[in-house]
Design goal:
Big_10, acyltransferase, L,D-transpeptidase catalytic domain-like, 3 domains, mainly beta, disordered N terminus, 401 residues, Immunoglobulin-like, peptidoglycan synthesis, four-stranded antiparallel sheet, Transpep_catalytic_dom
Length: 401
């Protein structure tokens, strides 16, 4: 008689223990069983359990796979254990309508999940499933720009580069939603199998906000490539600044919010190494950087370790930057560079009165630099963040949606 009371107390605690730590229910079966207790009355609907994995499913998300929800009832018991029997701890919501593991599940691991839900009419529903989470080697990740919370220029696209080739472009593109507070429609365009950029037909409206909802978790991008990213990113578009370089006139006109802000003398690409024409977006700002001709096909022609106020315009090595090695007389009069746009500057870049410093200080990543009247062709849309050089009809044709 003295042994019955502890046993009863332990039984009363079993539901809480299952909810918090997970209990081993034995071999999992794909079952959806509803019972009605003898004392049940009325016509209340039985509880409906929602799982984020089906029985036998593979490549399940480590963040969503173990989550449980219920409608028309409350969760009474949850057991989530590995194939080896190790319980997964989780937390029940205050209203009993959902349960989630306290941490992401392990990659490439088999789990058994059992859920029991109780309804108001005396119904009890049980659901079981066995599943395996996605392996580390079967994931894909997209690096993207711009970063959350940044302020960028009006030309900044949203650009994703994936670490694996994507074959189901529609599924991946549909899982990325880009919207602007300005109401501008935004469309994606694929550059090959690893990159997709999003932009409106015309530059972003100044002082607007762009929201990027990334819902790639569990999305199959290709065989052996499942997404895991699930986050929302917001960035601000600043004032409008578009600067036009006239290579033949050796001048750059900076237009801010529709008005001429400043005109600066420049030097562009020489006759045998002209600057690209077209709309180019500043993708990177470097207060100082090394420029070696060997990296862009001009081996032995230059190697400058401390180029000041450098702003990248293309992946292939086009910059607009300060130039301290050219004579003052070349700026505004001749083109001497290997394809970059040069502004007068001093070594070390510590003179704020120089044109190179001024333009650097008054530029944002995402600002547009337009080059015209150069003896070269228009830059390719995928050479940097320069999709503005593609007609809108062709841009939309490159969407997978």
């Amino acid at each position: 008689m003295h042994r019955t009371r502890p046993a009863l107390a332990l039984a009363a605690l079993s539901v809480s223990a299952c909810l918090l730590a997970g209990c081993d229910p034995g071999p999992a079966r794909d079952s959806d069983r509803t019972e009605r207790l003898p004392a049940a009355s009325g016509t209340a609907a039985p509880p409906r359990i929602r799982l984020n994995a089906t029985d036998g499913q593979k490549h399940v998300s480590v963040r969503r796979g173990g989550r449980v929800g219920v409608e028309a009832g409350r969760i009474a018991e949850v057991s989530l254990v590995t194939e080896a029997g190790r319980a997964v701890r989780g937390t029940l919501s205050s209203n009993g309508g959902s349960w989630a593991p306290d941490a992401p599940l392990e990659h490439g691991t088999a789990y058994r999940l059992t859920v029991v839900a109780a309804g108001d009419g005396g119904h009890r529903t049980t659901k079981k499933a066995a599943f395996t989470t996605v392996a580390e080697t079967d994931r894909f990740t997209g690096t993207f720009t711009p970063d959350n919370g940044t302020t960028v220029g009006v030309g900044m696209p949203v650009s994703f580069t994936f670490d694996k080739a994507i074959t189901d472009k529609k599924a991946v593109e549909s899982a990325i939603e880009v919207s602007a507070s300005s109401g501008q429609p935004v469309v994606g365009h694929w550059f090959g199998a690893r990159r997709v950029d999003f932009r409106p037909q015309h530059y972003w409206k100044a002082n607007s906000t762009v929201t990027v909802k990334i819902r790639l978790d569990g999305v199959k991008g290709a065989e052996g490539a499942y997404g895991e990213q699930d986050r929302t990113v917001r960035f601000t578009v600043g004032r409008s600044q578009v600067s036009t370089v006239d290579a033949s006139a050796h001048r750059m006109t900076v237009v801010r919010d529709g008005k001429t802000f400043k005109t600066l003398p420049i030097t562009a690409g020489a006759a045998n190494s002209p600057t690209w024409n077209g709309q180019m977006v500043i993708s990177e700002k470097l207060i100082s950087t090394r420029m070696n001709g060997a990296t862009v096909g001009f081996a032995g022609e230059y190697d400058i370790p401390d180029v000041p106020h450098a702003m990248r315009l293309s992946t292939s090595g086009t910059f607009i930057h300060g130039n301290y090695w050219g004579a003052d007389s070349v700026f505004g009069r001749s083109n001497i560079s290997h394809g970059c746009v040069g502004l007068n500057d001093v070594r070390g870049g510590d003179d704020a009165g120089q044109d190179g410093a001024w333009f650097y200080d008054h530029s944002l990543v995402g600002d547009v630099v337009v080059v015209k009247n150069s003896d070269d062709r228009t830059i390719a849309p995928d050479n940097g963040l320069n999709g503005w050089n593609m007609p809108w009809g062709r841009w939309k044709a490159g969407s997978a949606r």
